[in-house]
Amino acid sequence: MIFKKKTVKHDNLKADYDQILLEEVNHARKDLHQAQDSETALVDARVNGHMVQAQTALKKARFSYLYKEAKRRRTVASGLRFYKQVDD
User: Fold this and answer.
1) InterPro entries in the record, alphabetically (predicted)?
2) Could you state, in order of their start, the residue ranges of all structural domains in the chain?
């Protein structure tokens, strides 16, 4: 038994990183919605908001990347939506 190969369980490690990824996706989604709301408020106020638009585009790109990575890894979160739902 001296040369017995140790078995390593990777299931827990993957689950931990999947949970971290889901938290990052959720945080990025909240940031994106906040940036979109800020951009809408500035456009409505007729303020030149090129910097705000650039920040919104950056946050959208970050969220899209994280969302696609979670989808590629088949990580599922309950209630996760790509875009904000508009209540009528």
Assistant:
1) DUF2508
2) 18-72
